[in-house]
Amino acid sequence: MELKQLRQKSADELKAHLVELQKERFALRMQKATGQLAKTNEPRRVRREIARVNTLLGALQNSVSK
């Protein structure tokens, strides 16, 4: 998902998306462990998107606390 789309989401939507990404990351780790991972770049994409969501959540918390 692009950064523009992530910025339009509320904090609750971002948290829900983060949970989905973490589930996807777990599934990809299991696929890699069993040798079934077809797209080897997917774990990297998911890991980076998790970082983006965490960054946006942190920015939202900072702006609320000020």
Description of the structure:
This protein is mainly α and 66 residues long. It contains three helices and no strands.
N-to-C CA distance: 28 Å
Radius of gyration over C-alpha positions, nearest whole angstrom: 14 Å
**How would you spell out the order of helices and strands?**
HHH
Rounded mean pLDDT is 94
Percent of residues in β-strands: under 5%
User: Judging from the principal axes of the Cα atoms, what is the shape?
Assistant: elongated
* Main sheet summary: none
Secondary structure class reads mainly alpha
| Unreliable residue stretches | none
Let me know the number of strands: 0
Number of helices: 3
Topology:
Blueprint: H1 3-7, H2 11-34, H3 42-65
Helix pairs in contact: 2-3
Give a short summary of the structure.
With 66 residues, this protein is mainly alpha-helical.
Key traits:
80% helix; 3 helices; single chain; 66 residues
